[in-house]
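Q: Given only this backbone (306 positions), what sequence would you predict?
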């Protein structure tokens, strides 16, 4: 016997006998629902500590996330880095850049310099040949009038090997590039198509060199560095940071010490785990016969002063 003719219709019984019988059926169904609900609640109470645990069985619950999530530390200060790559024989500079970690503003600031840049009638290679990265750090600090705290110097092979440990990056090229060149004992090539590219460490190095030396487009060089930093400094990098720092020490010549690394570990955590919130700034150098223009010097000082 149907209790309802159609879903949504109200059924009016034709007789008191039918009404009484239907009322009894409804009461029996109600009792069964109550009993089954009670049994289910007792079972859940024994098996699960909460309703959230029941609905998220086998997954991390909101409560668990709240308990496990660590509040990122507060970081302050600014640190200026000088980073550059040479050929394996250290007879030329492929590219060179100033990078600031602005912990007050949670920002990166990038400025690519020309390896042919002249200071006091000497180009950067001549300054480097007198005393390595420390000599460049000192001279550029004097020239710009702000403190460059650290330098990191890679030869080509070491840079490629180190960055390969961190993975590839996605980079959107605005043109097709087919280039083969370099000096006789320091040749390189870069072949990429227009659009999004998946670059390995060798391609990153060669493209930075191409933008710096052949194209002399320091804005594109800045953009490639920004893309690399934004993608390579991630949660996995932070998990592996101790191992990567040991690799960095082996791969580069640098005045960055273990103490420096430990002091900056909170900043590294913020930059890696909160990467999407990090702001990036870029300043493009302009030269007059390999000497920075007055406006470029002024702009760089504005970005990198502490």
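A: Predicted residues:
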């Amino acid at each position: 016997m149907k209790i309802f003719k159609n879903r949504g219709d109200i059924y009016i019984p034709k007789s008191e006998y039918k009404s009484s019988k239907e009322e009894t059926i409804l009461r029996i169904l109600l009792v069964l629902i109550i009993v089954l609900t009670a049994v289910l609640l007792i079972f859940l109470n024994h098996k699960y500590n909460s309703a959230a645990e029941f609905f998220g069985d086998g997954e991390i619950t909101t409560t668990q996330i709240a308990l496990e999530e660590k509040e990122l530390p507060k970081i302050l200060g600014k640190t200026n880095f000088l980073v550059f790559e040479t050929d394996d024989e250290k007879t030329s500079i492929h590219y060179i850049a100033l990078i600031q970690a602005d912990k007050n503003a949670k920002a990166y600031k990038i400025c690519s310099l020309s390896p042919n840049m002249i200071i006091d009638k000497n180009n950067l290679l001549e300054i480097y040949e007198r005393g390595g990265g420390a000599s460049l750090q000192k001279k550029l600090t004097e020239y710009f009038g702000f403190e460059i705290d650290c330098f990191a110097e890679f030869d080509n092979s070491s840079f490629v090997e180190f960055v390969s440990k961190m993975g590839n990056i996605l980079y959107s090229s605005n043109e097709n590039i087919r280039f083969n060149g370099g000096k006789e004992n320091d040749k390189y090539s870069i072949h990429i198509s227009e659009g999004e590219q998946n670059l390995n460490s060798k391609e990153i190095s060669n493209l930075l060199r191409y933008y710096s030396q052949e194209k002399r487009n320091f804005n594109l060089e800045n953009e490639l560095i920004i893309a690399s930093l934004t993608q390579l400094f991630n949660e996995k990098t932070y998990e592996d940071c101790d191992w990567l720092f040991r690799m960095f020490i082996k791969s580069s010549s640098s005045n960055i010490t273990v103490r420096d690394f430990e002091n900056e570990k909170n900043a590294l955590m913020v930059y890696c785990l909160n990467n999407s919130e990090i702001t990036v700034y870029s300043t493009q150098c302009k030269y007059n016969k390999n000497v920075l223009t007055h406006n470029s010097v002024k702009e760089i000082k504005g970005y990198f002063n502490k």
